[in-house]
Design a protein that fits this description.
Length: 413
Amino acid sequence: MKLLQNSFWNLAGLFIPSILSIPCMGVLARSLSVGEFGLFSLIFALIGYASIFDLGLNRAIIRFVALNTGNHERVEKILGTSLIALILIGSFICLVFILNINLFIYLLNITNINLSYAKSALIYAGLSIPFFLVTQCFTGYLEGLQKFKLLNIQKTITSSLIVVLPVCGVLVENNIEYAILGLFVARVLNFFISYLFYIFFDKVNLKKDWNILKEMFFFGGWVTISNIISPVMVYFDKFLLSYFSNTSNVGLYSISTEVINKISIIPSSISRALFPLLSSTTSSSVIEYKKSVFIFFISIIIVVIPIFIFADKLILIWVGEKYLGLPVDVLRILLIGLIFNSIAQAPFTLIQAIGLAKVTAIVHLVEIIPYLIILCFLINNYGIIGAAIAWSVRMFFDFIVLNLIALNKIGEK
């Protein structure tokens, strides 16, 4: 019952931003050139990928706070030490990113966009990284306490800013620079809003204890390996498309992946509610695990089927005729992969919640090289269709492997 309640609050926190994002992404896709929209998608992914540089601290904060809810002093040390570490890490990554802007322009093969606008956009992206990482600290704290109602009131506000302010940027000046400037302003505001929620609703005295940080890094280190590899396998299709072709192909491909991202909030909401719940319990049975798999499956299949059937009409209404054709086929292929990806959230969450982040990291290490080889081959031969096939095939095998491991670990208990 608690899982369903917390999942509901997670969905509620994402519902309004997701509804807002539909017309907002439509405006961006219509206002920007296909190439600029592709670059926008890449930068959005880059900022999200920056979460790897928290060295697993966000996931560790959730787990350690969930395990120590009865130990107030230890929770204070967990939050305070993590906050200092994330400020330092975020500032360092920001500096390195900005100093290597020209390298990013070269690797992303940005040739069909005004380079001055592209460079400014990447600078804004780099500046947003510290704000993004530190915000993760405060949201992880509330999540570990399982205060999902409060957390998702906050997320409704902050996530809405993420989707609305880039549109405000292009309304001021119609180019990629102002779109990313809007995204940067949103990240800054998100940090201050998260901090205000922490001050007014659940403030604790911040303390530091470097020994606790060592414990968190031990858990978070394996999470980081997963966090490095998993986004590579999730986002690298876009970067390879950009490198081997251009950002226009990324723009065509990104329309379909945006639909997938919107649907993914359903399994993500359930997973985020499940993780602290499983972290705070001492045992899990096969029956409970199968129930969670069933919940993930039903919740995704009822959404995927109608979108699969009416994919062409959806894209036409949303972003216009210039995105019809291949993006529709890509969307249908990705929807198949999404079903397996959603169900795989059950074993993935269980394995990490019982403290075996090492296991998921090893799985991702084993998967990455074969996936990248297949991805490069299919992109070179079939373009965006090949990228979609590679992603969906990986989702299928990922689910099979994680499910077998989860059943084995439950059987050992």
